[in-house]
Amino acid sequence: MKSEFEMSMLGEMNFFLGLQVKQLKDGIFINQAKYCKELLKKFDMDQCKAINTPISTNCQLDQDCAGKSVDQSKYRGLIGSLLYLTASRPDIMFVVCLCARYQSDPKESHYNAAKRILKYLQGTKDVGLWYPNNVSLSLTGFSDSDFAGCKVDRKSTNGTCHMLGSSLISWHCKKQACVALSTAEVEYIAAGSCCAQTLWLRQQLSDFGILLNKIPINCDNTSAINLSKNPVMHSRTKHIEIRHHFLRQHIANGTCDIKFIGTEFQLADLFTKPLVKDRFYFLLNELDSQT
Question: Is 155 exposed, middle or buried (0-12, 13-18, 19+ CB in 10 A)?
Fold first, then answer.
């Protein structure tokens, strides 16, 4: 870069746009502890009692038409701040995206759900992402989805994540564009979304001279796996949008390889639904988030 641009060396990077970077002998640790503390203070939650999970398992958010409205600008400011925090906090990704759906007309129930995230952050301010040295440069994708989880329009939520060796490098949570008719369909659509991200990461790695094929995508639905591999099943999937069938093409080409994984080891489960405490922390540890 020095040969192309006029640059000055400012020393080893340790802070960048709210991200704190600790470069150690055995790896790199990234977190947003300072930003998190400022966020709690900004919304008068710096003295609140900590809570174990960012969302309750019985939380059923909807439009709550009969609920009391809250200040839109304050709610949107909170959601925007939390969305920025997801840059290093995959553990809050699902609930932040869930609360973000109700920014047009937020109610007290939505604001209380967002405040619960702050209570969770109160006890986990120093959590971040650990990237150790000398890990295997093998890329693995995880794909999951709930079924008709949104109480407003009964659309499902995709959850995907990617591991480079033992390090989490990509995570994603997004509501699907259409209402699905079966669990196989929602899982197939989620796997297609995971495949698209896998191809992008594969291209990025190729720029560094790392060439990968047969990249595994782990899915916990055997019907979705059969749809992606068996041409005989095609007649049963014509109602699925054509753009999702590119998954089958890339599996046939050998770029990706969709594999079955037990639901208990499905890491993308963290991005699709509220989880009980034990399950939540099991998946969080598997994603290798560190304090």
Answer: middle
Q: pLDDT digit string (tens) for 138-177?
A: 999 999 999 888 877 888 899 999 999 889 999 999 988 8
CA 115 to chain centre: 20
The residue ranges of every structural domain in the chain are 31-122, 136-290
What CATH fold (topology level) applies to the domain 136-290? Nucleotidyltransferase; domain 5 (3.30.420)
pLDDT digit string (tens) for 59-76?
A: 888 888 888 999 999 999
Q: Is 13 helix (H, G, I), strand (E, B) or coil?
A: coil
Q: What is the DSSP string of 189-240?
A: HHHHHHHHHHHHHHHHHHTTT----SEEEEES-HHHHHHHH-GGGGGG-TTS
> What is the value of pTM for the model shown?
0.86
